[in-house]
Each structure stands twice: as C-alpha cells, then as structure tokens.
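Lab notebook: predicted structure, single chain.

Context: the supervisor wants predicted structures on file for every construct in the current expression panel, including those that have not yet been purified. This is the next one on the list. No modifications to the sequence; it matches the entry in the shared construct table.
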Amino acid sequence: MSEPAAAGLRLLLALAYPLLAHLAGARHDPALAAIALADLGLVVLLHALLQRRIGAWLLMAALVLGLFALARSHYALLPLLVVPVAIISLVAWTFGRTLRPGRVPLITQIVAALDAMPPTALAPELRSYTRTLTAAWAGLLGTLALVNLVLAMLAVPNGLLASFGITPPWKVSEVQWSWFANILNYGIVGGFFVGEYLVRKRRFPGRYHSLLDFLQRMARLGPAFWRQLLQ
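Prediction complete. Output recorded below exactly as produced.
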C-alpha cells in the first residue's frame, strides 16, 4: 500500500474510533467497546502492520485476544474512560515540551516548513505569534484532558470511581460523559482550529488563499515530516 493510501486508511480508522466509542458508552455495549479499542490499536500499529513486521502482528493478535477476554468481563468499558485523557494529555505534552528553553515551538516548526525556511528566518512577529499559539494549544488540550479525567471519575454506574466501589461526590451519566469525551472534544478542538485560522488570516493577510489551501499545504508536508515533528 502506498504511503498516501496508508495515511488515508489511518485517518478513516481514527475517525471511526470516537463514533464506536460513543456508541459503546451510550449503549453500554462491551462488544462495541472491544471493537473501538481494536480500531485504536490498528491506528497505532498500522504502519508497522503494513510493513509486515512480525512483532506488530503478534502484538495485534495479543491485543485482539485480550480485548475478547475484556469484552466478557465487567470492566469492558473502563479503558474507554481513560483513552481520551491519555490521548489529549499526550498531544498537550507534545505541544508543551517544545516550549522549553532551547526548543523550537511546534507551530513555529510547522510554519517554517510551510514557508520552506528555517525557523530563525521567520519574521519576529510571526515567531512570537506561533510561540503564543503553541502555548495556547497546550493550555487548551491540557484543560480538556483534566475535564475528561474529572468526568470519567464522576461517571455512573461504571466510571473510574464507581468501578472501584467509591461513590462520586457528584454524578454524571455515562451518556453525558460519552458525548463530551467522544464528540464534544473534537468540536472544541475543531472550533479552536478554525477560529485561530480566521484570526491569523486577518493578522497575516495573504499567507493562505483559503482554509482549504492551508489544509492542502499542511498535507503536502507529508507523513515523514509529521512523524519527525512528533518525535
């Protein structure tokens, strides 16, 4: 499979996860929970699986067997409570770590790559803006991770606290948790992305013809760039 096709398949699998997870949580369906987690495993291991690495295939097989056993237990939905917290925390950390002294802020790196120049060659105003934006993304995602953790702890009847016999001081239903964790999270992130693009378009006019043009330029950076950026 070509690299663009693999990237497209990974995107489809990633888009399928929140829908599967939401249906599993809303319906309290252990089988759907296992399918959602298997889908997530495919997202993570897809590159290695397509390269026919034996270790990846063995890991995927072990995951499927483990999920089959998990689906037959009382804790099938528990991992779904943790996944949004873990993923969003990881992405927040990815942004935040590049703000440390001696590092180039993540969005500064992206803008420099889009402009085909080293980060030091960017205009000072653009470097300042991209650093502030990197911090804003880290703050937003860190806040979302915390909110997701609190909701996962308060969810009933099978939230993190309730699963271990602790009565939450406040309660939210698993359906409410699922709507936030698997649907609203993405709406907030998407809204921030679009809103920031509109602000940037006014502050730095002429850089992009449209939002579609901006997304196409981001895509043309290629999977190798994004893998290197996240290392």
